[in-house]
UniProtKB/TrEMBL annotation:
CDD domains xrefs: VOC_like
Protein origin, superkingdom: Bacteria
Database matches in PROSITE patterns: VOC (PS51819)
Protein name: VOC family protein
VOC domain boundaries: 1-122
One Pfam family it belongs to: Glyoxalase
Residues that span the membrane, as ranges: none
PANTHER family: GLYOXALASE FAMILY PROTEIN (AFU_ORTHOLOGUE AFUA_5G14830)
Organism: Novosphingobium pokkalii
């Protein structure tokens, strides 16, 4: 079971409002923070997301093929998460809509550092 996922940032102050907005829409907030790092989620709950400057002091880079997905409660929340991402410095990687079969509804976007993210719901009508 995954406890949390860490993504790199080169500017925590710029990136934090992006994740604050997504976390608020998902009904959570900051779980812990210290200089150079913030984590969002609920202790003892589902996996959280942490954002931090790399420990080795080198610039943060985007992993090719790496993506973190946020589970939404319904397609309307997927739409809101996508809109919040774009309004807070993110960029679109795929507008909200159905993908494939089986009711998979998703939107794709990147955070201010270029990390690829997704909001999705399974079994959407």
């Amino acid at each position: 079971m995954i406890g949390y996922v860490t993504l790199g940032t080169n500017d925590l102050a710029q990136a934090a409002p992006f994740y604050d907005a997504l976390a608020a829409e998902l009904g959570t907030g900051r779980m812990f923070e210290w200089p150079g790092a913030i984590a969002w989620g609920n202790a003892g709950g589902a996996a959280g997301v942490a954002l931090m400057k790399p420990f080795d002091g080198q610039p943060a880079t985007v992993g090719n093929g790496v993506m973190v997905a946020f589970e939404a409660k319904d397609p309307a929340q997927v739409d809101r998460l996508h809109a919040l991402a774009l309004a807070n410095g993110g960029r679109c990687e795929g507008a909200p809509g159905p993908r494939g079969e089986g009711g998979f509804y998703a939107a794709y976007f990147r955070d201010p550092d270029g990390n690829k993210l997704n909001a999705f719901v399974m079994g959407a009508a």
